[in-house]
Amino acid sequence: MVFLRYGQLDVLDGAFVLVDANGTRTHVPVGALACILLEPGTRVSHAAAALAARVGTLLIWVGEAGVRLYASGQPGGARADRLLYQARLALDEDARRRVVRHMFTLRFGEEPPGRRSVDQLRGIEGARVKRIYQGLAQQYGVSWKGRNYDPRSWDRGDLPNRCVSAANACLYGVTEAAVLAAGYAPALGFLHTGKPLSFVYDIADIVKFDVSVPVAFRVARDQPADPEGEVRRSLRDAFRQSKLLGRLIPLIAEVLAAGGLEPPETPEDAVGPAFPDPKPFGDAGHRG
């Protein structure tokens, strides 16, 4: 993932580039990115949007420093059979409850109490999440007054909430790219409902406290001059080191399989990735 701002995103000489007001070209490796987050001051040409869709890179329009997520452009590749499978699970109350219970187990490391409705599980989850936030704040020595911020008064908000919001924007962007790449609908959630990214929130919440929130609290503790930028850079490295995108798609399959319905089989004429991952070589310190 990468954040871009203050420039024209275009395709020049066959390459994906960001051209700033001075005419400086910055090449962007679009085929190697899961998503590109576009901050204010960015314009996108038709050719750039078409190329991003062709190689499966998600374009996401966000606010300054990734504060809010306004819109996204689906890269294509969604499969009708997987969309129908996801919809059947969401509409079947028993299957939906099994999916939500498994998400609870993955997130907290233990099974939820039996005979609880989805609404009751949502309440139990909310109480546990508050305790996790408080525990991480104590661990990193950060003053925490709860998850509360006003995006209209961003600069006047407290630093920990700003860092957590910036971290969430990064995580949601990568998770939405994974959901779309796997052929599912971001809006069709199980625990979260009624939002354009309900399923994205469902999946991201499973890994949030292992990946993004600890980074946000560490940055808040260190109080850098550019906290949002430091969060983004730190998460970029954390996502790469943990191979997060490679973990998310199998995680989605595992979560949905908990519903107990037969998943669709891969069709024989399925199109492969535009840029297949190269075979790894050497140890973890080498880069391909």
- Topology as a string of helices (H) and strands (E): EEEEEEHEEHHHHHHH
Helix/strand-derived category reads alpha/beta
Oligomer designation: single chain
Can you list the strand order of the major beta sheet?
1-5-7-8
Q: What would the keywords be for this entry?
A:
288 residues; alpha/beta; Four Helix Bundle (Hemerythrin (Met), subunit A); 4-stranded mixed sheet; globular; disordered C terminus
What does this protein structure show overall?
- The radius of gyration is 20 Å and the shape is globular.
- The chain contains eight helices and eight strands.
- A hairpin with a 5-residue loop joins strand 3 (15-19) and strand 4.
- Strands 1-5-7-8 form a four-stranded mixed β-sheet, with helices on both faces. A four-stranded mixed β-sheet has the order 4-3-2-6.
- Mean pLDDT is 84; it is low at 284-288.
- The protein is 48% helix and 12% strand.
- It has helices at 46-55, 80-91, 93-108, 118-140, 159-181, 198-222, 227-242, 244-257; strands spanning 2-4, 7-12, 15-19, 25-27, 35-38, 42-44, 58-62, 69-73.
- It starts with a strand and ends in a 31-residue tail after the last helix.
- The longest helix has 25 residues, at 198-222.
- Helix 5 (159-181) runs parallel beside helix 7 (227-242) and helix 6 crosses helix 7 (227-242).
- It has two domains: 2-73, Ribosomal Protein L15, Chain: K, domain 2; 80-257, CRISPR-associated endonuclease Cas1, C-terminal domain (Four Helix Bundle (Hemerythrin (Met), subunit A)).
- The protein is an alpha/beta fold and 288 residues long.
